[in-house]
């Protein structure tokens, strides 16, 4: 992979910051901005692009401003279901044709559904850009939503639920975090949905969902890589410009998650988990509040990024009460979650891990943080972001995140500077305001009675 000169220089400086005898701190790094272009078609389609001739490839992404938060009431998993349906046939393309247009020319394609967005992404040799733009416009405007496609993809999504939630020992725990952490906001509906809700859905439900959310004024097209800007504009106008903007407005989520007034605790049992676990969550502001979002992400990294992090050192190594730990500052368009969890070691109970988790959070929120530890974590986060931006696909993802989740595409350039400027007092401030100074939800995750003994006996017999 050939790096662009500016990012190559930034990478060398970053390596110097990590390994020099007199280390350069992350705050001293100079990072070149991403030179994006932005335009909006008369029908409302937003277009973001970055011209980069470092390699003869191009990334094409379609981000729809619809996620699991927009699932109809009693129809959780609809946005996820529709992600699958978009790979079926259209008026002018047979089913699975997107695979032929990408994989058969040495490229790749995929898609994902989140709380706030659904995105479809491809990377191909740049001489196939025109074909990919036509294909994305085709499945936006001419998708075949019929009974056969609906039932086949519903079965696929239900099987995904069985594999990722029911069959995984801790799948029910992570699937329940949103459901137990929100009381009013539709974020409480898991993105993957439920089998009962999917089975209750009808073809008309799917058609209505498509007509409501899959429209040009609810989408962002992102193109990065090896292309000519004038030619790109002409093709975008040709293939997307004619698609009409519906007269009705796009429905918006208006639910306001109330501030928690007391701590809450839930217990979930599992027939497959060999050992207990515990998770705790706190509400945090929208991703658009970068002044809080970025320090919270640094705080989560200080707690759990790598085996030298605080939670690993305390729970896994020193006290040996857990075999795995984690922390995450999940910022969303609406209220997000700060989450910590521990999967216990044999012979230990959730209350032991909960006590140590709380102690480490309070210690981080109140006691001095060394410059070396803070710089290490910020350098890790910065390195991860710079690494992503070495490819056209990675740059496109960064643009989509900044524009649709963080609220302004310019965050793609501003946030890396803001990350480098995060101080120990910033970490203290956000933890004291949103975590140690707020109410939490605790989930105790327990093996069903008799399962632990049976698992131990099975293990001993091997």
The CATH superfamily of the largest domain is Metalloenzyme, LuxS/M16 peptidase-like
Mean pLDDT: 90
- Biggest beta-sheet profile: 6 strands, mixed
Strand count: 11
CATH topology of the largest domain: Cytochrome Bc1 Complex, Chain A, domain 1
Query: Helix-strand pattern, N to C?
Result: HEEEHHEEHHHHHEHEEHHEEHHHHHEH
Cα-atom radius of gyration: 24 Å
Unreliable runs, pLDDT <50, ≥5 residues? Answer: 1-24, 452-462
CATH class of the largest domain: Alpha Beta
Please, could you describe this protein's structure?
This protein has helices at residues 5-19, 78-85, 97-102, 129-141, 147-166, 171-181, 195-200, 203-213, 229-240, 290-304, 310-318, 350-366, 371-388, 392-405, 411-420, 424-434, 451-461, and strands at residues 37-40, 46-51, 57-64, 108-113, 118-125, 219-225, 264-270, 277-284, 322-330, 336-344, 441-447. The longest helix is centred in the middle third of the chain and has 20 residues, at 147-166. The chain starts with a helix and ends with a helix. Helix 4 (129-141) packs parallel to helix 9 (229-240). The chain is of the alpha+beta class and 462 residues long. Strands 1-2-6-3-5-4 form a 6-stranded mixed sheet, sandwiched between helices. It is globular. It has 2 domains: 36-240, Cytochrome Bc1 Complex, Chain A, domain 1; 264-461, Cytochrome Bc1 Complex, Chain A, domain 1. The chain has 17 helices and 11 strands. Mean pLDDT is 90; it is low at 1-24 and 452-462.
